Amino acid sequence: MRKQVRRWVKECHHCQSSKIQNHSKAPLEHFSVPEKRFSHINIDIIGPLPFPSGFTYLLTIIDRNTRWPEAIPLQGITTYECVHALINGWIARFGVPGDISSNRGSQFTSSLWSEITARLGVKLHHTSAYHPQANGMIERFHRTLKTALKVRLTGPNWVEELPWVLLGLRTTSKEDLGYSSAELIYAAKHVYVRRHGTKGPLQRPYSSPYAVLTPGDKTFLIDIGGRAERISVDPFQPVILAKPPPRGRPPAKQSHPSRHPSDSSTASKHQQAMSHPAVQTSSRTGRTIRPPMRYQ
């Protein structure tokens, strides 16, 4: 009787649909990292936001290889505006990606979006419904971006502070990658600067490496003699720094110092004899061999 009552209570439809229970959770999966830069991007929309400058939304894009983030202000979130922002804000700078991952928003499932991406040769990937964790890379970027905007803002005009926030996010080192997105894109922490003016016949064309303070598309802010100088990227050459020697334990000593000096001297003589074998001075017939002076 008790088992039947327990089973009847568990099978009650109204109880199961009304009471809060622990939901089943799928195991975490590792997102595969593409081998090429800008070949696979994640895309999403943030908003609505305060609109002092007429912009109320942000089209966010992040590269899955280098984690390079981009946030493009939008006045609306129609499919046409999203396509226009994607082409002008990303494709015109970094090229056409091979894959785009997004949620099932109406902007990313419309016929116009599918037609434009199909003409560009882009393969679309949509996440499962009501599961933002499937697009977790860009969702986590949203959290960081909003926090940085809150810290940076002193007024309602977030559009003016957005470039500075993106600069900080792009130059922050990623713990799992060991580099920042800017380093992976521009591939340089230090650069050589080409010398201008009259050079001597044996003078090197580039001056010694300078630390990059802030990279950019057209100009770099570099440290020259303790002064921050903004110089065009044309006369630059990336510096390939030497890798430090691998860290490890020092080799263990194979032999211990002998208590008898004669033993150590005998061992050293034996090692010298093994490393420098005796030179033959006579042949098998008894003739004396005289090697040239350069071999003695």
TrEMBL record:
Upper taxonomic lineage: Eukaryota, Metazoa, Spiralia, Lophotrochozoa, Mollusca
Superkingdom of the source species: Eukaryota
Organism: Elysia crispata
Any one Gene Ontology molecular-function term assigned to this protein's record: nucleic acid binding
All copies of domain Integrase catalytic, residue ranges: 30-209
Region ranges (Disordered): 235-296
InterPro entries for the chain: Integrase_cat-core, Retrovirus_Pol_polyprotein, RNaseH-like_sf, RNaseH_sf
UniProt-listed PANTHER family: INTEGRASE CATALYTIC DOMAIN-CONTAINING PROTEIN, PROTEIN CBG26694
The protein, known as: Integrase catalytic domain-containing protein
Ranges annotated as biased composition (Polar residues): 263-286
BP terms from Gene Ontology: DNA integration
